[in-house]
Amino acid sequence: MRKSHIFGILVIAIAIAVIVSTAGDASSYVTFKEARVIADGGNKAKIHVVGTLKKNKKNEIIGIEESPDKLSFRFVMIDENSEEQVVLYANPIPQDFEKSEQVVVVGAYHEEAFVADKILLKCPSKYQEEEIKI
Amino acid sequence: MIHYFVGSFGHFLVILAFVSSIVASVSFFKASNNNSSWLRFGQYAFYLHAICIIGVLTVLFFIINRQYFEYHYAWNYSSKYLPIYYQISSFWNGQEGSFLLWMFWNVILGLVLLRTNKFWKPSVMTIMSFNQVFLTSMILGVIIFDLKLGSSPFLLLRDVIQDNIFKINPDFIPADGNGLNPLLQNYWMVIHPPTLFLGFASTVVPFAFAIAGIWRGKYKEWIRPALPWAQFSALVLGIGILMGAYWAYETLNFGGYWNWDPVENAIYVPWLTLVAGMHTMIAHKKSDSALKVSVILVVVTYILILYSTFLTRSGVLGETSVHSFTDLGLSGQLLIFLLVFIIGSTLLLVRKWKNLSGKKEEVSTYSREFWIFMGATVLCLMAFQVLVPTSIPVWNEILGIFGINSNLAPPADQIEFYSKFQLWFAIGLAILSGTGQFFWWKKADPEKLKKELRNPVIIALLVSSIIILFGRIKEIGFILLLTAAVYSIVANVKILLSLRKTNFRLSGGSVTHIGIAMMLIGILFSSGYSKIISKNNTGLLWSKEFPEEMNQNNLLLFQNEPRQMGEYSLLFRGMRKKIKKYGYVDANSLLPTDDPLKLIVSKDVAKGEAIVIKRGDTVSVINPENSYFEIKYSKENGKDFTLYPRIQVNELMGTLSSPDIKRTLTADLYTHISNLADPDQEPDWSETEEVKIKIGDTFFINDYVAKFIEMERINELPNVILGPEDVAVKAIIEIQGEYENYLAEPIYLIKDRMAGRIPETISEVASRITILNIHPQEDSFTFGVNTTQKDWIILEAVEKPWINILWLGTFFLVIGLSIAITRRYEEFSKMKSKNLE
What we know:
- The complex is a heterodimer.
- Chain A has helices at residues 3-25, 32-40, and strands at 27-30, 47-53, 65-66, 73-79, 84-89, 102-110, 113-122.
- Chain A is of the alpha+beta class.
- In chain A, strands 2-4-5-7-6 form a five-stranded mixed beta barrel.
- By secondary structure, chain B is of the alpha+beta class.
- Chain B folds into five domains: 1-180; 191-410, no CATH class; 438-529 and 803-837, no CATH class; 555-677 and 794-798, no CATH class; 689-788, no CATH class.
- Chain B is 48% helix and 19% strand.
- In chain B, the strands form seven sheets. In chain B, strands 6, 7, 8, 14, 15, 16 and 17 form a seven-stranded antiparallel beta sheet that branches. In chain B, strands 21, 22, 23, 24, 25 and 26 form a six-stranded antiparallel beta sheet that branches.
- In chain B, α9 runs antiparallel to α11, α11 packs antiparallel against α12 and α12 (262-287) packs antiparallel against α13.
- Chain B is globular, with a radius of gyration of 33 Å.
- At the A-B interface, α1, β1, β2, β6 and β7 of A face α15, β3 and β17 of B.
C-alpha cells in the first residue's frame, strides 16, 4: 500500500469521526413532554425547547420569581404544545426578558425542574420595524 | 415634500449598473480570442459599471445624510442625531447596503486588475463582470413577469410599510428615523465591515484566475498572478475576522472574542480553505505538484464565500444566530447565484480534469511539498469540522424537502464542541508550521534534518516545561498545544535568523507562522484559563432544585456598599453619563432639556478640588442612550482602578450591555453588567416615617445622619405659577452619605388655599423626603421620610490571562503576510514586464 493511500484512509477516518461526533453532539428542538421522556430514559443530553412566557388575561407576564439576591430566578414557560413548565436559571434575569416574544431554553430536566443552561431571546422585530411612530 | 428625483436617479443607476455588467461580461468573453475592439468595448462597459456603482453609493449616502426619511433605508437605519461616521455605518446595517459595499470592492478590484494585467485581462474580467451581474441583481428591485428581482435600497417608506398614516396622507414623512442598531455604534463597526467585505470580495480574484487559466488552457500559469491575490485575500479576510472578534470582545457581553456563531463560522471556513489553497499554490510553484488541489481549494473557497452569503442572508439560520440579516425574499436568487457557480465550475473542471495532472511520483516525506500538503489537509479538516455542524439548519431544510421532519439543533455547548476538535488540529498545525519551514531545498536528508531540528526541539521542550510548571497546566491537550506552539516559534525564529544573513524578503512565511503560533498561545491562555472571578463562593444555592454543580457567576452590588470579590474590594458608585469635554458625570446631577443631546447640571461638578461645571450650566451628552456604571476596584496593595461598564437602552432595539476592560500586560479584567434596577420603575416606598424637628436639628434618614439647615421662601417654581396669595417654601436638609453629602430640598406650597407638597428623592441614600406640615406656633416642621432599596447592579467579572499574546500574534501575521505578498507580486510583475503574462 502506498503512503498516500494510508494518508487518504486517515483523512476519511477523521472526516467520518467529525460527522459522527456532530450527529452525536447535535442537540434537538423538542417539547417539554419529549424532553421528559429523554431525561427519564437516563439521557442527560441538553435539548432546546421553544416557547413563550406565561401571561394572564391582561397580557401581563406571570410566574417569574426572583431569588432574594437577584442572581437566579425561575419562570413559567409554555411550549409549542401549550404545556406549562417551571424553568430554573442560575443567572440573573436577562435584560429585555419580559419584552421577548419567543424564548428558547437550552438545558435538561433535573428531577422535576427544567434547569436551563442558556436562554435565547427573540425580541419583537428587532431589526425590522413594522410600524411608524409619530 | 417627498424627494422623488434622488430615489429614481439612484434606481436608474442600479439598473444601468446591472445592464453594463452584462455588457462587460459578454464583451470580455468575446475579447478572449485576442479581439482588441471587444476588449476596448468591455473596458468601457466596466468603467460605466464602476461609475454607476459609485454613483449608487453616493446617492444612498446623500439620502441618509440629508435625512430624507421618506426613504425606507434612511428611516430604518439612520436618525437625526446620528454623527456622520455612523451614517456610513448605517450602510451595512441593511442587506442592500452591505451588498453595495461588496460590489464597490469588486469594482475597485476589477479596476486594479485592468491596470495590472495584459494577457489575463479579458478572461479574468469576464468572470469578475459575470460575478457582478449576480451581485447587482440583488439590489435591482424590478419585477419581471411577476418575479421580483432583488430588493432596491431606494424604496419609499410608504411602499415598504403598510401603515394607516399613508392612507390618510400619502405624502407623510416621519420626523425622525429608527436609528442605527446600537451594536453598530462602535468605532470598530466603522472599519470592520469594509475590511471584511474587501476580504470577501477579494476571494473572487484567485477564483477568476483559476477559472480563466483552465478555460484558456494555461493550466499552470494562472498560479503566478493568483498567488499574491490569494495572500492578499487571506490577509484582509484574516484581519476582518480578527477585527470582528475584537469588536465582539469589546462590545458584546458573552465574555469572549469568539462564540462559534454561524455567522462567524461562515467566514472562518472559507478563510481556512483559502489559506490551505495559498500553501498548495506555493508548493506547486516549487515543484509542479499539487496543481489539482490548488484549483479545487481556490474554487471551493469562493463557493464557500457564496454559501456563507446564502446562510447569513437567506433567513435559513433563523434563531441559531444572533446576527444574521432578516430575510428580504432573496433566498431563491441567492441559491441560484450559488448553484450557477457550483455547477459552472464543476463542469469546467470535469471537462479539463485530465489536463491538470502534475507529476505522478510519490511525494517524499523529506520534501517540502509533503509538509505543505499535510498542513493543507489539516486546514481542510478544520474547515470541514466547522462546516458540518454550522450547516445544521440547512440539513434540516434538505431533509424537509424529502418529507423527513428533522429537528436537529446546534450543539448545546458550542464552545466545548468545536474546541475539542479544533484544539487537536491546531496542535498539528503548530508542529507542521514549525517543521515545514526547514525544507527550503527540495529534499533534505534525514541526517541533516536531525541536526537542524535538534536545537529547536530541545529549546521548545525546555521553555514549555517551565511554562507548564509555573502556569500549572494540567490538561494534556493544552500541554501539547503549548509545546507545539512554542516549538513553532523557536523553529521559525531560527529560520528567521538564518534568513537575516541571506535574504530577508523570503521571511514572510516564518514571520506569519510565528504570529499564528503566538495567537494559538494567546487563545490557549485567554480562553482555556479564562476565570470568572465574580463567582458565588458561598456554596449556597437559592433553590434546592438546582443541580449541585451549578454555579452562580454574578455578583450583586448596592450603591456605595463595598463588597469583596476575590482579591478586590468592589464599590458601585452610581450611574454616569458621558459628557463632551468633561467625561463621566453623575447622572443624578443632570436634568433633561427639550434637546436630547443637551442636559442641565443641577449640582456643581468637581474634578479633584476644582469645580469644573457650575450648577445651571448646559452640557452636551455624547450619546443619550448610554449609561455608565462607575465601579471602583481596590486592592490591598493600593493599586486601585475604576471601570465604567456601559448599558445602552434603545427603545427599538432593546438593551445592550457592553463591558469595560482593565488591561494589564499579563491579563485583562473584563466586567459587564448583567442586570440593573429599572430606572423607569417607581420604587416600592416604605411606610412614611414622620419626624418633627426645628431648624438646626440633626436626625436620621435611612440610617444616615441628616441636618435640617434652614427653611427658605421661594418665589419661583418650575411649571407652577404663583399668585399673589400663594406661598412656597423649601427646606434645605443636608444628608451625610458615605462618600459625599447630599442636599435635599423638598417644597411645600399653598396655592389657591390648597397645600401642595413636592418631595425630593435622593437616590444615593434611597430616601424620599416630604414636608408634611408646618407648625408656626412651635417653630417646627414635620417631615415624612420614605425609604426604599438602594440602586443596584449585577455584574460579571472575568479574567482573561495573556490575551495580549493573541493580539500581538495578529501583528506578526499581518507583517508576515505583507512581506509574502510583496515578494510574490514582484515575481508576477517581472514576468509581466517580460511580456510573458
